[in-house]
Amino acid sequence: MIQSHWQQIIEQAKQQDYYCQLQDEITQQRAQGITIFPEEKDVFNAFEFCDLAEVKVVVLGQDPYHGVGKGDYYHQPQAHGLAFSVTNHIKVPPSLVNIYKELNTDVEGFLTPTHGNLTSWAEQGVLLLNTVLTVQQGKAHSHAKLGWERFTDDVIAQINLHNAGCVFILWGAHAQKKGRNIDDSKHLVLNGPHPSPLSAYRGFFGCQHFSKANNWLLKHNKPAIDWRLTNGE
């Protein structure tokens, strides 16, 4: 169930022309037989695990994975509404492989899991937010500029204003641009290269964002995030 404060933001968005146009376009595409990820039921999945005030860490991605699984899970989408996360039994994507590599060196006791499901992070207060919430199958960035950016700008602005203090992890120029108005006197803002294989070696490896986030949380009397992932997820 979508948490109450997020529900208010969504309801307010529904009253605005841009959002109505966005949803009309997505509805039309689905009616035309275009496959859109994540599935409709998972579009707002990021907002189901903790409400605005309980967010401890925001990890900002770009748009959902646009592929499907292999073998027995060929028709199962990678994306399920949590940035960088994939559904169970789906091969771990390259960016998440690199995130796991960084965790191995940054977080004591982290063991690389056999899956890419990050739901346990979300349950602890990590908002795994993409700046665009839908995508056409096989077409990265296909729903950029439809209006989702305006919606997620508002989400970030609401966290900035109404959350007492959290950590924003912004990987890549796109995410950093989205975070330019965050109040860094109240929140911790961690900027770095994107974990994509194209850019991870430019400084993502060794950034220590996970331990830095936990150190800040503990310093501000908030529970640290257990970044470890069991193979039972």
SSE diagram, text form:
Blueprint: H1 4-14, H2 17-31, E1 36-37, E2 57-61, H3 94-106, H4 119-123, E3 126-130, E4 135-136, H5 148-162, E5 167-171, H6 173-178, E6 188-192, H7 209-219
Parallel strand pairs: 2-3, 2-5, 5-6
Antiparallel strand pairs: 1-4
Query: Shape, please?
Result: globular
**What is the residue-mean pLDDT, rounded to a whole number?**
94
- Quickly count the helices: 7
- Run of helices and strands: HHEEHHEEHEHEH
According to DSSP, the number of beta strands is 6
Based on CA atoms alone, the radius of gyration comes out at: 17 Å
Largest sheet geometry: 4 strands, parallel
Gap from first CA to last CA: 20 Å
Write a structural description.
The protein has 233 residues and is an alpha/beta fold. Helix content is 33%, strand content 10%. The protein has helices at residues 4-14, 17-31, 94-106, 119-123, 148-162, 173-178, 209-219, and strands at 36-37, 57-61, 126-130, 135-136, 167-171, 188-192. The strands form 2 sheets. Strands 3-2-5-6 form a 4-stranded parallel beta sheet. A two-stranded antiparallel sheet has the order 1-4. Helix 6 links the parallel strand 5 and strand 6. The two termini are 20 Å apart.
Name its key features.
233 residues, alpha/beta
Quick overview of this protein structure:
The protein is of the alpha/beta class and 233 residues long. It is built from seven helices and six strands.
